[in-house]
Every structure is written in structure tokens, then in C-alpha cells.
Fold this sequence. Notes:
This protein has one domain (2-133): Alpha-Beta Plaits. Helix content is 35%, strand content 32%. The chain contains four helices and four strands.
Amino acid sequence: MRFILYLSSLLVFLAAPAVAQNAMPACSGELVIVRLSTIKPTGTMKGFMDAVAAHQAWYRNNGVMDDEIVAARIVVKDEKTGANKYSDTEVLTYHFNPPGGQRTPHRGDAAWNSYVKMYNDNADITKEYLTCMPKHEKM
């Protein structure tokens, strides 16, 4: 449910008139939505990753080609062995250049609702941020 509420509030923000968007601080990089999600006891990391893929596919199928959604597994220390391993319960997602409401007229359609359900079945959003990712060059 939190994911649906967040998507709704984000879309309202992104679809707001230009005057309201001018209240945003200047960003010399690109806007990125960063979310920390916690896998539910009844969910799976695979189910969450499938939701990420379906989410990105929804945008591509609706003509949005300049955003990117990336899921990053969090590395944690295994308490028993001391070895580093991937968390089974937490994951970060980055949505680069998220499109505004005017570019997503089919939001709320069956495919949209399907990927939202996949997220809701597998995880809860623990934290979410709208960030300005600085421009950087790869070395």
C-alpha cells in the first residue's frame, strides 16, 4: 500500500505545474528516486527483482525510453561467519530520470497495477528520497 501511495504522491509532484516545480532547488545532475525496500517475510528477493523488471518494462512499453531503474543488492556481514554476503531482506533501487505524469498517460492500467502488486506482494518501502545525482565521468 505504501508503494501505491508513494507512486501517487510522486506522480502528483511530477505532474505539478511548472510554477510549482520551480520551487525545487537547482539540480546540475539528474533527478533520481532512491528507495530502500525491505523484503516481506512472505516475499522473495526474486519476486522483488521481477517487479523491478516489470516496472521498467511498463515504461518502455509506454514509450518512455530515457529513464532507468536499477536495483542494487546491499552487502552485509554474515553474523555467524563474518563473511560478506548479499542481504536477503534489503535492497536499494534507483530510478534515474523518472518521467512526469504528462509522459505516463496510461498509468493505472492493468500492466501498471500488475507490477505494483508484485512490489506490494514482496516488499515494503522503508525509506525513499528524491535526490539530485551529480554529473560524473567514468574513469
